[in-house]
Structure prediction request, 313 residues.
Amino acid sequence: MISVIVPVFNEEESLPRLYEQLCAALEPLGQPWEVILVNDGSRDNSAEVLDRLAAIDTRLKVVHFRRNYGQTGAMMAGIDFASGDIIIPIDADLQNDPKDIPRLLAKLDEGYDVVSGWRRDRKDDSLRRNLPSRMANWLISRVSGVKLHDYGCSLKAYRREVIKDVKLYGEMHRFIPIYASWLGARVTEIPVTHHARQFGQSKYGLERIAKVVLDLLVVKFLDRYAQKPIYVFGGFGLLSLVISALVGAWALYLKLFLDVAFIRTPLPLLCVFTAMLGITCILMGLLAELVTRTWFESQGRSTYLIRAKRNLD
Prediction:
């Protein structure tokens, strides 16, 4: 079964046309399909439109949030309620084209686990949307090692087994291909059609750049140090202690050889501050190590993943 996930926030005008386009794209495939529409606390008439569409077609599954949780929360709910072996997220604003879904599925059939859409000819404002997006995509690709041109494109296709254990927080939905890659998934991308927005206004602005950078820091930390957080906290702690020792030595040198009193320089205060910071970081690293072990052991999670086994129970 194919499960299409559609996060919805104030898209009442787009929904009827989106439903028609999805039906036109999915019905010729000859496979069972469903559409999970997640109403992310819309303040217009989207809820009524969704309920009306679900009443006429039982293949439409609707989830209404009590309030707005953001696209990542809506995406996570869609994955949780999806029944299909193939999961395809798509935006509700008609900028993604459902006609590209068969092409995504054909690429999956070549042996890939994740197929990401690439809005090569993007119909958005060049300065406000396209330029920041290109910069963010370049940075994410360099830091993560997963080379994609367009992390922000919602239109993607996933095999369920590579994302079933992925838990999304904050605004991490754009990094799902990276999480899947950690699980050994084969990731690729294809160019997809992108249309200009017909109704409403974009829900994103330039403030998204800062969010992407901060989320990328989290992703990199989870990739490199999730199992050994002491390397991060302890590293900062040791650096602070070294700085403290150097500053203290310099203060003593000024006192003993140049007769500069401690109260005439901020160096003693800086020495004490960096020493306290270093000790605190090391203790936080030890605490993080305990939390990491509790996380793995309490949930019976393994620190490694196995693709396949032979002659083993």
